[in-house]
Write a structure and sequence with these properties.
Elements: E1 7-9, H1 16-33, H2 40-60, E2 65-72, E3 75-84, H3 87-92, E4 101-108, H4 117-131, E5 136-141, H5 144-154, E6 159-161, E7 171-177
Parallel strand pairs: 4-5
Antiparallel strand pairs: 1-2, 2-3, 3-4, 5-7, 6-7
Helix pairs in contact: 1-2
């Protein structure tokens, strides 16, 4: 799969069931990969939250939540979205990031992971944010695998909440500048995590 074979586009209301199905596939895989497969209530909560977010995009025409999808061979293989920072992020930072946009729902279908899809989604979203004059964003993660990826791409998090989800399960929060987008998101790399 080549980068130019992937279309990045806005979601369409008529594909809502496909988007919901995509979220379920990716979240179940994420929970399994992070050793959380027994946390069914949390998984269902996450699925409902992502459905709420995409519905918010449709109901506000992207004003409150803004999604982009990655499509390859007529299949949804990735998603990324942004909106106002979430309640957990605000609580953990004493509302420091309350007025910032948060990047969320960076999902890639398990069959297409580690092939540059998330980088392409970030590239596209950063161009959108830059064109809107947004200068800073934030994002958070409690998933160990995602944390490793974000640390490599964006450096150490601004907040490192040790054992937040239980012993050995940390939560990390990043705050980064949105500069004129580089040709590729991997040019943002800063270093390794704590």
């Amino acid at each position: 799969m080549k980068r130019d074979e992937i279309a990045i586009r806005r979601p369409r209301i008529e594909e809502i069931d496909l988007i919901h199905g995509f979220f379920e596939i990716v979240l179940k895989d994420t929970f399994d990969a992070n050793g959380l497969q027994t946390m069914n209530d949390l998984l269902e909560e996450e699925i409902l939250d992502k459905r709420r977010c995409i519905n918010q995009d449709f109901s506000t025409n992207g004003r409150d939540r803004y999604f982009l999808l990655a499509e390859y061979n007529d299949e949804i293989i990735g998603s990324i979205e942004y909106g106002l920072s979430n309640e957990l992020l605000n609580r953990c930072t004493n509302n420091e990031m309350k007025d910032l946009f948060e990047v969320g729902t960076v999902f890639v279908h398990p069959q297409y992971q580690k092939q540059g899809v998330s980088s392409l989604l970030f590239d596209s979203l950063f161009k959108e944010l830059y064109n809107q004059g947004i200068q800073e964003i934030c994002f958070d993660s409690g998933y160990k695998i995602a944390q490793k990826i974000w640390c490599k791409r964006f450096g150490d998090p601004k907040y490192y909440l040790r054992d937040f989800w239980g012993k050995g399960s940390h939560h990390m929060i990043w705050r980064i500048s949105v500069k004129e987008p580089p040709a590729r998101i991997d040019q943002y790399k800063k270093g390794e995590c704590l």
